[in-house]
Amino acid sequence: MEPFTVLTSVAVPLDRSNVDTDAIIPKQFLRKIERTGFGKHLFHEWRYTDYEGTQENKDFILNQEPYNKAQVLLARDNFGCGSSREHAPWALYDFGFRCIIAPSFADIFYNNCIKNGILLVRLKVEEVEELFQYVLKNKGAHVAADLENKVVKAGGETYPFEIDAFNRECLLKGLDQVGWTLQFTDKISAFEEKLVKETPWLK
Fold first, then answer.
1. b vs e for 67-81, b when ≥16 Cβ sit within 10 Å of the residue's Cβ?
2. What is the 3-state secondary structure of the chain?
3. Is residue 142 a contact partner of residue 135, using CB atoms and an 8 Å limit?
4. Which CATH class, in words, describes the domain spanning 6-175?
5. pLDDT per position in the chain (203 positions), as tens?
6. Where are the domains of the chain?
7. Cβ contacts of 173 within 8 Å, gap of 6 or more
8. C-alpha torsion angle, residues 83, 99, 122, 59 (rounded to 10)
9. Residue 19: how many CA atoms within 13 Å on its side-chain side?
10. Which of 69, 80, 144, 201 has its CA 20 to 30 A from that of 41?
């Protein structure tokens, strides 16, 4: 994963509540175990007017400039609800999103995103509404997510947010849980060697 420190990007206002993982990446595209290649199917039924995905829906915001290159997604309550499919954050990341801001997220989706390098920011409902109004009134407006200082900045306003210390550290260093564990390979090996010497019957 790429380390996440500060990200400044155009923000996409996706004005929908209860966006579930089937809307994020429909079930017919869950045929691969690789993490790449899912971005083209992100929000498939909203982005395209045909099943094959060859005709773009010009009214959907992600098909419009400058939102089609955005890395920050503004959403409403309960984003990522539904099934626990990890393909949802894979599709969001592959499309280019590195940060999602909303009042609330489904728990499993939240954890899956963190493990895949996407910062999820929970803000108060009224704060998210302020961000929506700002980016809607200023097309192409940028929002900055500063993980080091745990703040979001936009339109001259600053919005502090909270994040678990371990998740923050992993994102800052660009590590998933496996990568975090591998930092301690020497200590793990030393412990195993000591354990074999002290309890050889367990070998």
1. beebbbbbbbebbbb
2. CCCCCEEEEEEEECCCCCCEHHHHCCHHHCCCCCCCCCHHHCCHHHHECCCCCCCECCCCHHHCCCHHHCCEEECCCCECECCCCCHHHHHHHHHCCCEEEECCECHHHHHHHHHCCCEEEECCHHHHHHHHHHHHHCCCCEEEEECCCCEEEECCEEEECCCCHHHHHHHHHCCCHHHHHHCCHHHHHHHHHHHHHHCHHHC
3. no
4. alpha beta
5. 889 999 999 999 999 999 999 999 999 988 877 888 999 999 999 999 998 889 999 999 999 999 999 999 999 999 999 988 899 999 999 999 999 999 999 999 999 999 999 999 999 999 999 999 999 999 999 999 999 999 999 999 999 999 999 999 999 999 876 665 666 677 767 667 776 777 777 66
6. 6-175
7. 3, 179, 180
8. -70
9. 28
10. 144
Peptide bond into 160 cis (omega under 30): no
Maximum alpha-carbon separation in the chain: 71
At a CB cut-off of 8 Å and minimum separation 6, what does 146 contact?
Answer: 5, 6, 152, 153
